[in-house]
Amino acid sequence: MGESVMEATVLQWLKKEGEMVAEEESVLEVATDKVDSEVPALCSGRLHRVLVQAGEVVKIGAPLAIIATESTEEATATGETIQVVTSLTVAAQPAAVYTAQPQPSFEARFQQPTDGRFYSPLVRYIAEEEGMAPAELNQIPGTGKDNRVTKRDLLAYLHHRPKASGQYKATTVGLPIATGDEVIQLDRMRQMIAKRMVASKHIAPHVTSFVEADVAGLVQWREENKERFAQQTGVKLTYTSILLQAVVRAIQDFPMINAWVEQERIIKKKAINIGLAVALPDGNLIVPVIKHADQLSLAELAQRVEAVANKARNQQLAPDDLAGGTYTVSNLGSFQNLMGTPIIMQPQVAILALGAIIKKPAVVETPAGDVIGIRHKMYLSHSYDHRVVDGALGGGFVKRVADHLATFVSWVQE
Questions:
Q1: Does residue 180 come out as left (phi exceeding 0), alpha (psi in the -120 to 50 range) or beta?
Q2: What is the pTM of this model?
Q3: Does the CA dihedral 128-134-135-138 come out positive or negative?
Q4: Tens of pLDDT, residues 10-35
């Protein structure tokens, strides 16, 4: 469901306990901050037990239900104990059903002291939600039986716990509301977007470089070819498609910008999968991914851009449409914005904002000397993760995008 998706909400079960399900038949509906989708069964069998009820939030990778296959049904009939054969899983790939994997115990994730200190499930849950390190939890004095840490002990500790530097805390209580003010509750998607954006700013030190690109030749070429292009391909020749092709060429020149960060590792991605930010009719934002953009011609790229944009606006995106992005582009020019400071899509290392194309007076070099002329210009805003991307890479990359745009006519026919 996308590398940035960490949890999902179960909307409804399409099957009841005890009912038979067929392979690939939809069993439940789940919702994330990105898309609502149905989860199919990987095998045929009987829905033995539902583990997560409608309305509950489940972490990515957690089991949702148990499906009993024919082999386990036969085992039950002979008096043998039924085993967990298959569990529905909200996965980091397209919605699917995977073989149940043993979940690591709390003791395996939190190293216990040698005296085998016990923590109740509620205490474990709160500790994990608060991101407490094992050593920190183990040092809390307990007032329960055998010095166990109770919920009250943990909450009292958290109340006086020092806030980490830069920790975000939203101010939502005590704000004055005057007569005539309208209070609007954030919808589910907007809440999740807010969490992702705050998390990204907290995780990655953002640096933004700006470059002005001369796109006069590009604009002229498009005007001369857009009608023929539409007749031959069936789609419009948009600036977005042309700009994306220049971005892909720059990524090939600077492959380290096409990467993910995982703790202390940089994962240099082979595939160039471009995420394209799309504004939805309700004002929210979604980022479908154009897979293997480096293998697409301009015509194919234009077709993909139009397809994902239409699917996004019509709420027809599938989980696979949002997964696997390696670099993201946001077209601010569609709102007539000149530039911006976009926020990185984790775990990617950079994002590019494309400004509006406008006419400007500029110095033009000619054989007879410099003259003032009218040129089409646009600003490129490149935000990158300064943990792993320095100015030489981040600034060099966006300058290369500008160079490719300026020389578009020379390479578009290649």
A1: left
A2: 0.65
A3: positive
A4: 888 888 888 888 887 888 877 765 56
Per-residue DSSP letter, 293: G
**Model confidence over 46-56: pLDDT tens digits?**
888 888 888 77
CATH of the domain at 371: 3.30.559.10
Give the separation between CA 270 and CA 309, rounded to whole angstroms.
25
* CA neighbor of 350 nearest in space, from 251, 202, 243, 239: 251
- In Å, how far are 182, 204, 277, 360 from 382, measured between CA atoms? 36, 14, 14, 22
| Domain end residue (candidates: 99, 125, 147) | 99
User: Counting runs of H as helices and runs of E as strands, what totals does the chain give?
Assistant: 11, 20
Kindly tell me the burial class for residue 194, based on how many C-beta atoms sit within 10 Å of its own C-beta (0-12, 13-18, 19 or more): middle
| φ, ψ at 359 (rounded to 5°) | -85, 135
Is pLDDT at 228 greater than 70 in this prediction? yes
* Burial class of 162 by CB neighbour count within 10 A (0 to 12, 13 to 18, 19+): exposed
Q: What is the CATH number of the domain that holds 133?
A: 4.10.320.10
Smallest CA-to-CA distance from 331 within 392, 209, 205, 242 is with 242
Q: What is the CATH number of the domain that holds 86?
A: 2.40.50.100
CA-nearest of 353, 303, 349 to 327 is 349
Long-range contacts: 314-321, Cβ < 8 Å, 24+? 315/36, 317/34, 317/35, 317/286, 317/288, 318/35, 318/37, 318/94, 318/95, 319/1, 319/2, 319/35, 319/37, 319/93, 319/94, 319/95, 320/93, 320/94, 321/35, 321/288, 321/289
**How many domains, in total, are found in the chain?**
3
The string of DSSP letters for 95-148 reads: SEEEE--PPPPHHHHSPPPTT-----HHHHHHHHHTT--HHHHHTS---SGGGP
Residues 127 and 62 in one domain: no
State which residues form the domain around 87. 7-99
The Cα–Cα gap between 250 and 256 comes to 11
Instruction: Kindly list the catalytic residues.
Output: 386, 390
Other beta carbons within 10 angstroms of residue 151's beta carbon come to: 13
Bond from prior residue into 176 cis (ω within 30 degrees of 0): no
Do 129 and 235 share a domain, yes or no? no
